[in-house]
Each structure stands twice: as structure tokens, then as C-alpha cells.
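Quick board copy: two proteins, each given as sequence then C-alpha cells.
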Amino acid sequence: MTETENQPSPASFRLVYVPGVTPTKWLRVWEERLPDVPVELLQSAPAEGHALLLSGGADAGLVRLPVDRTVLSAIPLYTETTVVVFPKDHWLAAAEEVTAADLAEEIVFHPQDDTLDWPELPGRPAFERPATTADAIELVAANVGVLAVPQSLARLHHRRDLTYRTLADVPQSQVALAWPEEATTDLVEEFIGIVRGRTANSSRGRTAAAEEQRRPSSTKKSKPQPQQRTPQAGGKPRPKPGQRTGGARTGQPKRGGSGGGRKK
């Protein structure tokens, strides 16, 4: 076995994220604070993202709620606006905002990877459910029906022949940071601090604390030595015994006055 094989590989952080979620801004901060720890990005469908976390295939994930809170910890991050996607020449394009009632006569696709928790689906159901949101977008482009999705997914599947409007009074999708509750590692703690917007000084995490414990004693800062007292302004230091001050030895009487000669 070579020397290179004996060296342990550097730790990495595995982050799964679902379509429509953009982790770029958090990864940029991660690279600044932990440049030696690479991030392995794993993109997956919404349901597969949860399964990947539960199986240990990822350390944390940017997923859509709900998640199983009995095994996963989750921090809600933001709520997305729901929009309805339709062809640009559709009559809905004249409206600034659409309601569920406006879709009463429209075929509304409900893909199998839909992340919206509908108490009641708007519009008329399609003959069958498309397998994915991407498949539903293709059917919308063919002018077969319309599709309600979180706004980020409408942007992700943008096409020149399609547009969208805000869909009011309907369920919305919530994005959260989730991780296995029993696997809250140091790197997970670091990413939580980044996502929550903590500064590097206020949120160094357990990793930094461990590094401080592992730091050799020679690199630790020594206690400052007490400084010697200095005389106050305008004062004179007390001379030591035998020390000359002004050309005369202290403790000895001065010689005769001006002229200083011996009398004859």
C-alpha cells in the first residue's frame, strides 16, 4: 500500500436538494468558511430527497415540507408563491391574478410529484396524472390544460410559449432545511449556522470548538506578562544605590561651591 493510500480522504458534506431550490448563496458562504471541506450536491425528486436523508445517503437536505418529524429535524426557510402556468395566448393571460374559481372550467394537471397539499383540487381533473412536473409542462405547452406549481418550478421549466400568474387562495409550498435527528454532525451544525445567517464569529459551531481542543499547546496564546510600572508623568524614578544621577554619586556630599579650590 502506498503512502497516498494510507492518508485518509478529506471529509465532505453531502447536501441533497429538490427541484426549484437554489442553494448557491449558502454554498458560497460555505466555501469561504470551510474551503477544505468539499460539498457533494445531490439533486433528487421531492419524495426521493426524504428517502435519501433517512437512508444516510445525505447529511442534510433542502426539501419541501412536510417531512417525517419523528426522525427528521427541520428548519422552515421560506414559503413560495403558487402560480398557474398556461400558454401565452390563453385567456388567463389578461388577468393580473388568478383564483381557484377562475379555473373551474379548465383541466388542471396534478402530477405525481406535486408538492402542494390540496384539500380540494381546482378545475377539472385530467384523464390521467402526469408522472412528473416536466411532463405536465409539456402537456400545458400542447394546450391540453394548465398547471399549478410553486413559482420556482415555473421558472425552472420556463418556456417562451408559456407564462404564469399568481394563484390566490390556494396551498403554498414551504422549503426547509432537514437532516436526520440522530445524525446531527459538526458539518450539519456548520450548515445550519450558515443558513440561519450567523456570522463566522458568532457561529463557529462544534467543529471550531473541536479544532481549538486539538490545537497544540505551543500554538495557544500565552498569558500576557505583567508590565513594569513606569513613573508618573512629571515624576522622577527613585535612583538605585550607587547609581550616578547628574554626574554625582548618590549618598555622598557635594564638594565645595563655585571655584571648588582648596584653601591655601
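And the next:
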Amino acid sequence: MKTILLSCICLLSSFFAMADIPLSEKKALVNLYYATDGEHWKIPWNLNEPTEAWYGVTISDDHVVALYLPSNNLRGELPSSISELRYLKELNLASNKLGGPIPRSIGQLRDLKSLELFLNEFTGYLPAEIGNLKQLQFLSLYHNKLKGNVPSTYAKLENLEMLQLGRNYFTGYFPKQLCSLPNLEHLSLHDNDFEGELPIELGQMDNLEELIITNNKFTGYLPKSIGNLNKLTTLMLKKNDFNKEYYSFTDRMPVGYLSIDIENESVITDHN
């Protein structure tokens, strides 16, 4: 009897030793693998190996904290079960062939600091639930097929430093809610269908260093409040419908920029 009991204890000990992450997290990874044609990834996972050996998976304190799979030939749709990776801080699935909508459940990843899904084929609207990611610092979704407006909930992303939404099909006015983000340094909205005048609230973005809004349908004049952006080093404006032809610059904002004539050689135009 003692021998049997001892054997059971050894078996259980071995099982828990192999269970390096919770079963719910392992299931979420396996779901991702099969939903994105894992067998044809450039570097596929061996599901018989321990999770910590899987390419692009970072584990800390027995939880998945980072998933780094850019340019790995993922195709298909991102499953909603990604939300089971509740301790995830970094999610990078950029430069793949992922399509369909970005799952709303991604808004449950409350520890997420970096979300990079650029250079894919995601469609549909931006999930409003991303506004729940209070720790988010980097959000890069450029070069997809996303459409509609930027949700008002994104005004809650107080730690956001970089937002890249270029090369999509976004519409509506300049997302004024972004002007209240205290830590935003880089904002890129180029190659979309935004329209209307730029809001005066732009002048409130004290930490803004880069604003790229080329190839949209913005109209009117630049608000004079832009002159308050003392940290602005890059402003790209080409291919809009402004009432005046504005030059762009890729160094610090020239003194008296809003009154500079277009012939002034000290201001640099957009490339390409």
C-alpha cells in the first residue's frame, strides 16, 4: 500500500513539474497555433516540448508574459481565446498574414504594454475595448484594412506613448480624444480618409514629438495652438486639402512656422 501511495505521489509531482504554466494559458497558445496554420509557420512549435521551449514565448513566474512572432507566416484569424493569456505584457504578431477582425477580447489583457499587429490584413472596426488597456504604451496597427472611427474609449490610454494607425481605411474627423493623452509622443494617421479641420486641442499635447497625417482629407488651416508644441520635431502634412500649402519638417519646429511662406528653404518637405 505504501509503495502504491509513493508511486502516486511521484506521478503527481512529475505532472506538476511539467505544468509550467496554467492549463488555460497553454490551451490559448495551442488555439493560436491551430487557428493560424501553425504547421506552416517559418518556425513552428513542437507541441510535445515544454512551453518554455516554444519559439517566441516568454514565461516568467509560471505565466506567459510575452509573445513575439513577427514575420513567422501566421495566417488566419486571431482567436478570441488570446484573452486567456492574462499576464501578457507584449504581443507582437506583426508582418504576418492575419485577417478578420481584431478580437474584442483583447481588451481583457490588462497588463499589456505593447500591442504590435502592423503589416497584416486585419479588417473591420477598432475594438473599443482596447481603451481598457490602461498600461498600454505602444499600439501599432498600421498597414491593415481597418475602417471606421477611432473609439472615444482610447482617451483612457493615459500611458500611451506611440500610436500608429497609418495605411488603413479610417474615416471621420481627427480623433480629438487623443489630444488628452498626456504621454503621447508619436502619432501617425497617414494614408487614411480622415477629414475636417484639425482641432485646437492639438496644442495640449505637450509631449508630442512626431505627428504624421499625410495623405488624408484634412481641410482648413493649421490651428495656431500647434505653435505650443515645443517638443515637436517631425510634422508631415503632404497630400491634404488645407486652405494653404504647408511645408513639413523633420527637425525642430521653425520659429514662426505658421507664418512661413512656402518658398522658405529652411523647412523640409515630405519625402516621396
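Board note added afterward: The CA atoms of residues 102 and 122 lie 7 Å apart.
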